[in-house]
Amino acid sequence: MKVVSVIDSFKGCASSEELNEAALLDLSSVTWQEKVNIPIADGGEGTMEAIYATNGGKWVLTTSKDPLGNDIEGSYLITSLKNKKVAVIESAVFIGLQHLDPSEESIRKATSYGLGLVVKDALQREVGEIYVTLGGSATSDGGLGMLAALDRVSYSTKGKENPLLTSTDIGFNSNEQLFKQTKLFAIADVTNPYTGENGFSKVFGPQKGASTAIVKEMETKAKELLEKVEKQYGTNLNDIKGTGAAGGLGAAVVLLGGTIIEGFPTIAEMIGLEETIKEADLIFTGEGKIDAQTENGKVPYGVATLAQKYHVPVIALCGSRSQEIGEMSRLTLGTFCIQLGPVSWQEALDKQRTLKNIRLLAYELSQVLLKGT
Questions:
Q1: Domain ranges in the chain?
Q2: How far apart are CA 279 and CA 149, in angstroms?
Q3: 0.85 exceeded by the pTM?
């Protein structure tokens, strides 16, 4: 029989590949003649590695700027998808939260300028498509920094501070030739609009250090930009799902002529996940936390939905489980927390402990399943 493990990374703890390996390790090779480890992501951390594991490619090391304007080096992936040369860039590598401590000071300084520099580097390598993942960014600049690096907007504090909060002279430039030969896509795992109660200022601002006063200021400036874009280009950014993703980076991609696409379906297609799932006899999936929000485009929900299409049983494993898990109750044999008892947050994030627990639980659940057949 064939067992497939497609567990998303436990953020800050263990990678998708490590978790899959642990889940499969003790399963009997006599019963499970084929054990398949599929690294997966939903457009956040680990996306490049998931695509590389299936498609291969070349890692490109480039210099850029972190959110605070410091020089950094980072890598992105150039690979082949459907016979096209494409680049895959993770925002978090260059402008992620690991580069700063979220605070009122940092949110006034953090900019997405460095991400724009990386996109510019990829353009010079004559790729047919560029995919930018939006998960894990530390910025809330409305996408202005990225646009400035690509000469789509101009302002006085270019590359040095959050222009949404510090610039009053923001102007849009015409740069029609930039993506004439290359298609640009943003891979997003959220559908937030640009402004409003679910916009980037109010939803993501506090997570990135914004006080109530700063959130209000950001929202006011974002609305001004929204109106300016609609007046100049006839486009209401709030009518496009995901423009508020990653502090407004979704909007930047739209203003560059790009398209915002859903995370899990895109990654699943890139790695041929459906073909692997339909041939399986059992599937393990999971992520760090499974709750009622998991059905909003997260990996476990996507995997379970594909598996149901082919009547393949699914077991979900997680570091933390809510009582209410929405559609996951219907789509899986069960959703199980790997903790063996009450634990501290620090203990829950211990990699070796996590891998040991997931290894044990996957084995025991597979044994229960076999004895019940």
A1: 2-39+272-371, 47-264
A2: 46
A3: yes
